[in-house]
TrEMBL record:
GO terms for molecular function: monooxygenase activity. CDD domains: NPD_like. This is Nitronate monooxygenase. It comes from Fulvivirga kasyanovii. InterPro entries: Aldolase_TIM (IPR013785), NMO (IPR004136). It holds the Pfam family NMO. The keyword NAD does not apply. It comes from the Bacteria. Gene3D superfamilies: Aldolase class I. The chain crosses the membrane at residues 12-33. The lineage of its organism: Bacteria, Pseudomonadati, Bacteroidota, Cytophagia, Cytophagales. Keywords: Flavoprotein, FMN, Membrane, Monooxygenase, Oxidoreductase, Transmembrane, Transmembrane helix. Belongs to the nitronate monooxygenase family. NMO class I subfamily.
Length: 326
């Protein structure tokens, strides 16, 4: 299919308006390389690399394989003590775009604007969208209620028109897209592209366990539940027998600690650390303690396939829909 012309495809010089979403523990260089070859772009969380040396090696691998365009996701709140180092490396390597999450993007925007690096900011509501627009963000990542991981409270059908009506910068929808029809519908709402994650977990290139990939195939939208036991912030996971066993709500001690003004910060840090360790163990090994992040878009995943085939399937489905002007 010929290029789908939107603000996102023009901004990043890609054929199709799709960002392979940054997924903690899942996203890697191989996935991004295959995505770029297939005509989309990809983004990797900087936190997926334990050291700056590993991070630089991944950036070099992508640059040498496809050049670009590709992006990096940065957590911009105080919990990310490696932010300055990660940002410096991104600027040095001149990545094409950065997606910021969980905090103010001011420092990132100021550093990237000098190098022509685009900055897209995760938002879940109008108030924060206006703030990042004022700071100079290049686009909004509208995280809706269909997203995997830390989902927003509003469906795309409400969030996208709201942001389009009140902000002047492009809106990229995050969550709930796995088919060509869904891509078409989101673009029709006014989004210039989508950030799509969960379907790519079931890809040959994803570095997670075969059990995790198969779970994306075997489970559906009805099996996605919200838990606050991973990071202290509500997060979507597959409702495996282990999740049913431990429950999705914090226990009485965690709840008390999180309500204490003095201890709340430390309790949340501990919850986050324990949750991330549980996710990491489940992602890379076979274990009955299965904590697998995913969104309801896994409803449309029916096989483990190469990234190239996932993209081709999406675009082929899209091409059967009526054309529209952007």
């Amino acid at each position: 299919m010929e290029r789908i012309d939107t603000e996102l495809t023009r901004m990043l010089n890609i054929r199709y308006p799709v960002i392979m979403a940054p997924m903690f523990l899942v996203s890697n260089a191989a996935m991004v390389i295959e995505g770029v070859k297939a005509g989309i772009t990809g983004c990797i969380p900087a936190l997926n690399y334990r050291t700056d040396k590993e991070f630089r090696a991944a950036l070099t691998e992508i640059k040498e394989a496809v050049g670009g365009p590709f992006g990096i996701n940065l957590i911009v709140n105080k919990s990310n003590y490696r932010l300055k180092e990660q940002l410096k490396t991104c600027v040095e390597y001149e990545v094409d775009f950065i997606i910021t999450s969980l905090g103010s993007p001011r420092e990132v925007i100021e550093a990237c604007s000098k190098k022509g690096i685009k900055v897209f900011c995760d938002v879940t509501e109008e108030k924060y969208a206006k703030k990042v627009e004022e700071l100079g963000a290049d686009a909004l990542i509208a995280v809706n209620s269909g997203a995997g991981g830390h989902a927003g409270p509003m469906p795309a059908s409400e969030l996208i028109p709201l942001l389009k009506a009140n902000c002047k910068i492009p809106v990229i929808s995050a969550g709930g897209v796995a088919t060509g029809s869904e891509l078409h519908d989101v673009l029709a709402l006014g989004a210039c592209g989508v950030s799509m994650g969960s379907p790519f977990i079931a890809s040959d290139e994803a570095g997670v366990s075969q059990e995790y990939k198969q779970a994306i195939v075997d489970y559906g939208a009805k099996d996605i539940v919200m838990t606050d036991r991973l990071s202290g912030t509500p997060c979507t996971v597959i409702n495996t027998p282990y999740v049913q066993e431990i429950g999705t709500k914090q226990n009485w001690l965690e709840s008390i600690l999180n309500k204490n003004k003095t201890l709340k910060k430390y309790a949340k840090m501990l919850t986050f650390y324990k949750g991330m360790k549980s996710l990491e163990k489940a992602a890379f090994s076979a274990t009955y303690k299965t904590l697998w992040c995913a969104g309801p878009s896994i409803e449309h995943v029916h096989a483990i396939r190469p990234v190239k085939e996932i993209v081709e399937g999406l675009i082929n489905e899209y091409s059967t829909r009526p054309e529209r002007a952007f």
